[in-house]
Amino acid sequence: MSPGRLQRVEVWSPLPGTAQFHFERARLEVSFLADDTVRVSWGPGPEPVPYAIAGDIAGPVPVVQAHPIDVLRADGAWVLRSVALEITVSPDGTLRTARPGGTLLRSESAPARRGAAWEQSFSMRAGERMCGLGEQALAIDRRGATVTLWNTDPGGSWGPGKGPLYLGIPVVVSTHDDGDVLSFYENSTRATFDFGQQPSDAGKSGTATVRFAGGVLRRYLITGDVPHLVDRYTELTGRPALAPRWALGYHQSRWGYRNDADVRAITDGFANLGLPLSAVHLDIDYMRGFRVFTVDPDKFPDLGALTTEVAAVGTRLVTIVDAGVKIDPDYDVFCEGRDQHRFCTDAHGHLAEGVVWPGRSAFPDFTDPGTRSWWAGKYRTLTDAGVAGIWHDMNEPTSIALLGDPTLPISTRHHFDGRGGDHAEGHNLYGLLMNRAGYEGLQRAVPDRRPFIVSRSGWASMQRWAWNWTGDVASTWESMRQQVATVIGLGLSGVPYSGSDIGGFSGIPDDELYLRWLQMSVFMPYCRTHSVRGVPPREPWCFAEPTRQLVAAWIRFRYRLLPYLYTLAHQASETGAPLIRPLWWSGGDSDTDDAFLLGDALLVAPVTEAGGRRPAVPLPSGRWTSIWAGDGDGVGEGDGVGEGNDQVSVLTPLDRIPVLARAGSVIPLDDGWSDRGGLCRLDGDTGRPPLGGPTSDGLSLDHAPRHLAFHCWPDEEGVAAGVCIDDAGDGHGPVRRDTLRFEGAHPGGTATLTWERAGDFAAPIALRVVLHGLSAARAVADGVEVPVSGSVVDVATFSELTLEGLRDVTGFGV
Ligand code: MIG
């Protein structure tokens, strides 16, 4: 049914920047929340409970900034105009969103309503990328695909093309030379986005269709460049939580660690190899009969003693918590939940039942604030035993079913903070609100620590409470390659922290596939090896040489990256910027699903085929240099604009993948983890990587940098700049922000590196400055001469470091 004809218009009501359009059979509300952000809602239908909107919002519109606009009438249409956006509402209900001056960003048809469902088509510009929508097994650009948003366990093993997966998010990020646009549909009912016929049609303009099963048809539209879109979107839906630093370390997991002896064997094994390990994960077997918030006393007689023991080597325990609660009259969590009406019910008010690992199970109704609070109180069972992080699984929610949809029936009732609703609306919110309860539980239980939760499911705004991992990925090269686009898609949808089971979940990767997967994951936000029950173990010592030593070297390299990763994490919590970005993040045409940026400064090109093959990298603008020793300098120039991007081919021997630094960057690394002789270069004589490196003093519990190093890659102007953000690694104490600027880096010249510090967290006393492409003859820190050895300067905290007698050097890596 169409909206019919426009009958009446109210402007400025009920809020400034708002206009309401009354059609015969529909109502349209257009609200400017800021110059560049406009909310458009088509009713009738039940308004969403604003679970995805940040802050305590009273009233219907979260006002980022109540915004005055101009309202004009032109040719029978209404025009609402801010300095950045112009919305034209036609009497037939079509909408046109343009830049002032008329450049079209999006046109939308009048929506059709069928029963409670909505359908609307909208324009796609020629060459426009359509990205986002959360976790998808698709290319970064979703054009040509049909995407369903209905959080689903795809059943044990997924690869390219599979869907829906565990975590859909109704956010579309579109890029186009005429202007980028983000659309967030605040509607949790089942959705379908149909992006036209063929990926090959992307060069032409086209039409997309979106359908929602119910609710009001509401979307927020934001304009600006892509970093700004994600910034505004996470202002609206909440900034990513800053996790404790250890969460950015390496995690070892496996479905099947049986008892405390298994855990000790893991931490001992890492210690024997001199390898750091941030976390061991306990899958469902640690529980008593899969009952959540219990610990099997036969397998883990003293979990508290175990967490203390592994803390001595810098390792934490992360335990799984599933959504389903075993129906068992002798189990306190179930009895409490039943007696206090904490579980979802069917349409008649009886307990809604599903089947999960413990058998018949009840499902907490996380849309009920009382249930969230009750559930939050349960995490103490684990945190009191020293458990440091939580892994949320099966929270799509999944109820194991042989046939049909593996979740609760649609008629299942939810509380919806008092308003009431069914599973058609509650389903996609289930994981999100479980994460919220978990986050609040960890905050309450251990207020001086930052919560860490990694969750399989969620929805828009989950970044406030949880990280994600991509679930049960098949152990194949195609599935590994897919992870790049999948993790990028999540980042563009506001979820900056994700990663995949290294080696794939549900199979047996050969050594080469495992190693390549690890090399890629070392540069991804979440770096964890995990696998299904019954496959051969994947601890580093389980591999034959040279894989074993290469695996060890790459795990160490993760710790080398920590200062940079942690800086990016701080920045993500300020701006929402994902750690992993598409090559076109800052503009330009360089486009591939085979490589990604880590922050602004590194470009990573994982090897995703056997035999070390990989396509050439289309470089974004600027000059890029391999970070590995021996690769030579100036690997390639990218122009990033127009046609004819430089393609650069880089060597891919088994010991490394192409990683390029952007000329003009200063990157903080922890050289306390560097391997003697450079990163895992195979020794020419033995064909093995060199052993050793300063690992003997182990990993500290706070993961503080052991030897902070500022690595400088000057550009052709002789300039490099960067940031380093540091703090105690957990808690809510002071932070230090370093601004580094390197100037005058020309052969024969004198360069200066200035280091400005802001904030109260102390800077390390001893650190290192490393020049790439240059060596120095003499170094002076704040007037005092300090030792310099080629390109490396070891120095105490300084404000200005002067480097004299600069000379070109090539082939010097990190
Ligand atoms: O039905 O807890 O994705 O990581 O090992 C399988 C057992 C349940 C699915 C998760 C996987 C985990 C497994 N879980």
The parts where pLDDT drops under 50 for at least 5 residues are 57-65, 639-645, 677-696
The chain-level structural class is alpha+beta
Mean pLDDT: 92
The hetero compounds bound to this protein are: ligand MIG
Shape verdict = globular
Q: What percent of residues adopt helix (DSSP H or I)?
A: 10-25%
The rounded Rg comes to 27 Å
- Number of DSSP-assigned strands: 52
Helical element count? Answer: 11
* Major sheet: 8 strands, antiparallel
Query: Oligomer, anyone?
Result: single chain
Task: Kindly list the characteristics that best describe this protein.
alpha+beta, binds ligand MIG, 16% helix, eight-stranded parallel sheet, eight-stranded antiparallel sheet, 52 strands, 814 residues, 11 helices
How would you characterize this protein structure?
- The protein is α+β, with helices and mostly antiparallel strands.
- The protein is built from eleven helices and 52 strands.
- The protein has an eight-stranded antiparallel beta sheet. Strands 29-28-25-21-20-19-31-30 form an eight-stranded parallel beta sheet.
- Strand 5 (70-74) and strand 6 form a beta hairpin.
- The longest helix is centred in the last third of the chain and has 29 residues, at 547-575.
- Bound molecules: ligand MIG.
